Amino acid sequence: MTRAFLAGDRGYDGLFCAGVTTTGIYCRPSCTARKPRPEHLEYFATPDDATAAGYRACLRCDPKGAAGTEPDWVKPLLRRVEADPGARVSNDDLASLGIEPARARRWFLRNHGMTFSEFARARRLQAAQEKLRAGAGLDDVALGSGWESHSGFREAYTRQFGKPPGAGRDGETIRTRVIASPLGPLRIGAIDAGVCLLEFHDPVRLERQEAALRRWLDIPTVPGNHPHLDRLESELTAYFAGKLRRFAVPIVAPGTEFQKTVWETLRAIPYGKTCSYAELALRAGKPGAQRAAGTANGANRVAIVIPCHRVVNADGGLGGYGGGTWRKHWLLELERR
């Protein structure tokens, strides 16, 4: 816990909080405030435990909120953006909501990898693309999406999507959102054909997996909503509650032919069961290629749904896992129960 807290590891948010004995304040692991010395830390399983011990919640990281969920001060801001994605939200607008622009910037950078202004612009452009795909006229879309000129809209649209708005009627994007889970926040993504991303919130691995996905699909990633994301979130809730054994949400998993064969083989491993890397290679038609099978297993971009956590060492050891071996152990224990 000390290593995760001092490193600001967001993947541990929601799993514990740390009280700072010199200030009387408790924080979530990813808090960006200056870190104290290790001997000044006290750990708690829940915010209620920290409060009962006499600590106050940090105002910067808001540890009372569940990891992957929006704190109360962010919710009206998100509602405003979603209600009218084409409208611009200025610093004065933020002030009218009682939000400091710097605070909004920090929260969106930490949770979405972009500033609030970048997030709002991406949502405006996403809404514009949806209108174009629905058949709306280019002039109406350009001037109704918060831009004062066609040239400004065209430049922003091309920078976001890699093609001009005239080609937007046939365009598509990977819609992403962050959700809460018992294992910390999850980033999920979908296109019209199905879910294509489910990753734990490790910034380095997440960026690598999203970059690979963008290369395979040749479309950009933007924050947004999609019915497949709603369905996945609902199924994950049931899975973590022990009420779902097989996911039904459609999956899109582009890769090499061997990778796709391995991933399909993973989906055939029954709930509550495991297989070794050697068995995985054999079932995928490449006996003896356990190292290659392990590499394909690790390249899986739809964790849990494509159950790469069900592959273990031949001696019964856990082996590796992109989300951390403690998460692998947690998932296997859930399924064994």
Using the 3D structure, state the CATH architecture of the largest domain: Orthogonal Bundle
CATH topology annotation of the largest domain? Arc Repressor Mutant, subunit A
Radius of gyration: 22 Å
Overall outline: flat
Separation, N- and C-terminal Cα atoms: 26 Å
As residue ranges, the low-confidence spans are: none
- Name of the level-1 CATH class of the largest domain: Mainly Alpha
Structural class: alpha/beta
Strand content: 5-15%
- Integer average pLDDT: 87
Instruction: Please give the order of strands in the largest beta sheet.
Output: 3-1-2-4
The biggest beta sheet, please?
A: 4 strands, mixed
Share of helix, binned: 40-55%
Instruction: Provide the succession of SSEs.
Output: HEEEHEHHHHHHEEEHEHHEHHEH
Number of helices: 14
Summed up, the domain count is 4
Instruction: Please provide the count of β strands.
Output: 10
Verbal overview:
There is one protein chain. This protein is an alpha/beta fold and 337 residues long. It has 4 domains: 2-57, DNA Methylphosphotriester Repair Domain (3-Layer(aba) Sandwich), CATH 3.40.10; 75-170, Homeodomain-like (Arc Repressor Mutant, subunit A), CATH 1.10.10; 174-240; 257-336, Arc Repressor Mutant, subunit A (Orthogonal Bundle). It has 14 helices and 10 strands. A 4-stranded mixed β-sheet has the order 3-1-2-4. Strands 7-6-5-8 form a 4-stranded mixed β-sheet, with helices on both faces. Helix 12 (277-283) packs across helix 13. The longest helix has 18 residues, at 116-133. It is flat. The mean pLDDT is 87.
